Amino acid sequence: MLKLEFKDGDLQMSNDDPNYVDPKEKIYEKVPLSVKQLDKIIIGLIIAFVVFFAIGALKGNGII
Amino acid sequence: MTKNKSNFGNFLLNNAVIILMILSAVVVGILRPNFVSGYNFKNLISNTAVRFIIALGVSGTLIMKCTDLSAGRQVGLAACIAATLLQRSDYAQKVFPNLPDLPILVVVIGLMLAFSILGLINGFVIAVLKVPAFIATLGMQTIVYGACLVFTGAQPIGGLRQDYTEIASGSFLKIQMIPYLGIIALVVGVFMWFLYNKTPHGKYIYAIGGNENSAEVSGINTTKVKILVYVTASMLYALGGFLLGGKAGGTSASLGMSYELIAIAGCTIGGVSTNGGIGKVGGILVGVMVFELLKIAMQFMSVTTAYTYIVQGIVIITAVALDIRKYVAKK
Questions:
Q1: pLDDT tens digit string along A45-59?
Q2: How high is the ipTM of this complex?
């Protein structure tokens, strides 16, 4: 039987397994994107945030 | 120097959503000076408090790699029941005219105990009958909404007692910055932090979210833990609903509509993984608070409702994208 071991600040169940991988990392391993591609997506999202916020405010104030 | 630069860059990236929303609030504060006021701060604390309590309920299920789509409807039903039990005796349209004035504490505790049954059903269906959480709680959501419509007759409920609404609108020692709602949320937050970090039950929740099979093999009674998480969640929704009803000053069946999505969004922004096993109470508080801050900022800027939804959606997707980037960068 495995035993549960929680180290300080570590809430994951590693069971001292040297090959243990964080379950979230395991899922993200399948993400077919590089860091640079993700950076571009994030920058795009931030720009979209600013643009939609501004358009919404301009529309709400009857400017456009 | 380079290391410091890279640490600073990582800090910016890891907290980009929070920084972005705080920057938005600063810009709104400059453009609309009355945004930075004691009243608005109290409003932020009060709004955050109720949603934080609901988000804490949902967080347990998310950490366990489940979900709870019935949260908002349970909040709505709790608000309606609390309102009918705490109406003024001289109110002409009182739902239960012969009901005497009940002590508030009795109503809150009774409500939380009654709602634990809904959590028990949710937990039983998910943990014992092995129905996927998404479907089980979707069913519960619809049933609770129907029950709420039957209970209220689809009519709004008003005439709430002043001592009830005072809990939601009042402040500790009349200090505007310390509303009662904030204090209640703080107490619930500390309790949940203790539960997650200092008790075996909390560790089991994370263990199940990390790897349910391993947790089961390790001797954890996963069925019991899952049921307890849903019972706790429903009790928190009941408390959240009670407070929301008092805050709104009146209730209807539609109160709390889509609150489960707001709670899940707050949790996601605050670092709770929908893939289970990860999430902190402090992160949830920050996530819910910055999301509320953004909403208030958009109200002050008169952003139209349609664009409000688009902006909120972008924030959630950005939070998830940043989370993925963090892990891809580690590879």
A1: 999 999 999 999 999
A2: 0.75
pTM: 0.86
Q: A53, B217: Cβ pair inside 8 Å?
A: no
Per-residue pLDDT of B62-115, as tens digits, reads: 999 899 999 999 999 999 999 999 999 999 888 999 899 999 999 999 999 999
Nearest to A23 among B276, B304, B329 (CB): B276
What is the rounded (10 degree) CA torsion for B216, B219, B222, B224? 160
- Tokens representing B160? 């709430």
> Which pLDDT score is estimated for B306?
94
Residue B78 in tokens: 């709790």
Task: Give, as one character, the DSSP assignment of residue B87.
Answer: B
Over residues B118-130, mean pLDDT: 97
The whole-angstrom separation of Cα B177 and Cα B174 is: 9
CA angle (B22, B294, B69) in 5-degree steps: 125
Q: Phi-psi region for residue B249, left (φ > 0), alpha (ψ -120 to 50) or beta?
A: left
Cα separation of B324 and A27, whole Å? Answer: 10
Q: Choose, out of A1, A3, A4, the residue to mutate when testing the contact with B (most B CBs < 10 Å).
A: A4
N-term to C-term CA, chain B: 24
Buried b / exposed e across B139-163, counting CB within 10 Å, b at 16+? bbbeebbeebbeebeeeebbbbbee
| Chain B residues with at least one Cβ partner in A under 8 Å | 16, 20, 24, 197, 203, 206-207, 209-211, 214-215, 217-220, 273, 275-278, 298, 301-304, 306-308, 310-311, 314-315, 317-318, 321-322, 324-325, 327-331
Partnered with residue B157 across adjacent β-strands are B251
